[in-house]
Design a protein that fits this description.
single chain; 121 residues; mainly alpha; globular
Length: 121
């Protein structure tokens, strides 16, 4: 169970560190090819806030169990990332962007798996 948690948490952490990092660091013009909504449907301050939440979630999955300091925070991080993806799915559905919803669905399921594994630890 511990190995499964680290595999799932590690994959999620890498994904969200990248995804959140680019939302924090890249300009609207740089994000536009892959996220047309960035800076238009959601202001850049909101995009940056989403990036911060994603990076915090990624760190929350890994650092508490790794350091032994408040390891229960990993449960909240996994739940928070699942909520982020549910909200992202609702947002994309409202914009009629159904083509790439599979990724949101996969990320919700993986975040829920991390949540279950974190509770089981």
């Amino acid at each position: 169970m511990v190995v499964a948690y680290w595999v799932v948490a590690g994959l999620l952490a890498v994904f969200y560190l990248y995804s959140g990092g680019i939302k924090i660091l890249r300009s609207q013009e740089q994000l536009a090819p892959m996220m047309a909504w960035a800076g238009t449907a959601i202001p850049m301050s909101g995009v940056r806030a989403i990036g911060v939440v994603e990076v915090a979630g990624a760190l929350g999955l890994v650092l508490p169990p790794l350091t032994g300091i408040a390891p229960g925070m990993a449960i909240w991080a996994a739940a928070g990332l699942a909520v982020v993806q549910v909200l992202a799915t609702i947002f994309h559905l409202s914009r009629g962007e159904r083509k790439d919803l599979w990724l949101n669905g996969v990320l919700v399921l993986v975040a829920l798996a991390a949540l279950v594994l974190a509770v089981g630890r």
